Amino acid sequence: MTKLALAFDLGGTELRGALVERGGAVAARVSAPTMAGAGSEAVIGQIIALAGTLLAEHPQAKVAGIGMCAPGPLDPKAGIVIGPPTLAGWHDVPLIDILNRQFGLPVRLENDANAAALGEWRFGAGRGSGSLVFVTVSTGIGGGVVADGHIYHGRRGLAAEIGHMTITGEGDRCFCGAVGCFEAVASGTALGRRATRLTAPGDGSLLRRLSGGGDVSARHVVEAARAGDVSALELVDAEAKWLGIGFTNLLHLYSPDLIVMGGGLANGFDLLAPGIRTTVGQRAMPAYRDVPIVPAELGDRAGLIGAASLILWEGEPGAPLAIAQDEDNGASKRAAAREASHG
C-alpha cells in the first residue's frame, strides 16, 4: 500500500484529520468540533481519538508520520504551541513530544497558514511556481510565504503574521490591541461589521433580510452583491480596496511569483478581484503590477495536505529542513546557499 501521513488541521472551531497520500490525495477524512474552551489536554485527546478512528477504519495503512498544523503563535522547530488566542489554556504546549510519545511516529508541526501555503504551492493554485504568498481571509487574516521552495519561518517560526501589518491609522481596534491592522479592516469579520453598521434590524434591506434581522456577515454581503444589491456592491468595493492595499504591501515585501487568496471570503473572489487589481495597479510600483492574484484551489484541504507533506516530502523542496536538523547546521546551509546564489 502507498505510504501515507496522518494529518491534522487544528482550528478554533473545527478539528480535521486525514490520511493523505504523497501525491496530495486525501484517502480518508474525519472531523469534530474543537473543544476550544476545554484546554490543551481535552483537544489533544480529540486528536488521539480521531487518529484512532482513521487507523481503525484503514488498518492496512502504512503511516510514515504525523503532520500537524495549528494556529499561531507556535514554534515549529521546538514543536511548541505557544499561545493561540483561539484555543483556551494552550501555553507553551510541547505538542510534537506529546504526539510522538503517544504514537511512536515522527511528528512535524507547522502554523496553519504556512501549511495551507505549502499545500497550495505543491498541489494547488501555486503548482509550478518558485514562490508565493498565501493569504487566508476569513474570521481573521493569516498568511504564509513559500520562497525558493521553502516556507519562510523567520525567528521562532513567527514570520508572515500579515494580518497584523499596520495599513491605516484609524478604525476598529484589532484583537491584538493595535489600531489599523490589516485584519481589523479587511477580514471577513470587518466586512460583516461594516455591513451591520450600515443597516438596522427591520430596515427592509436585503442584507438584513438575509441575516434574519441579526448581525450581517461577510457571506451575506457576498450573497447580496451577487443579487445586485447596491449597498452590498459598495461594501465589496471598499473591501477590495483594503485587500488591494494589503496585497500591495505583500508584493513589495516578498516579490512572489503569485498571491493566492483563500479563506471564507475567497468564495467572493470573482466579485473582489477587479477592485483588488485596480488598487494594486494604482499603488504598486510598476515592476510588481503584473503578479497574478488568484483564488486558492484546495479549499479546506490545503492545511491537511500541506501538513502531510511535511512528512511525505521531508528533505525535498517545500519541506522546512531546519525542523529536522540541528539549527547550526541549518544556518550553515542557508549561508552557503546565499553565497552560491550571489556567485
Automatic annotation (TrEMBL):
InterPro entries: ATPase_NBD (IPR043129), ROK (IPR000600), ROK_cs (IPR049874). PROSITE patterns: ROK (PS01125). The keyword Transferase applies. Pfam families: ROK. Belongs to the ROK (NagC/XylR) family. PANTHER family: BIFUNCTIONAL UDP-N-ACETYLGLUCOSAMINE 2-EPIMERASE_N-ACETYLMANNOSAMINE KINASE, ROK (REPRESSOR, ORF, KINASE) FAMILY. This is Glucokinase. It comes from Mesorhizobium helmanticense.
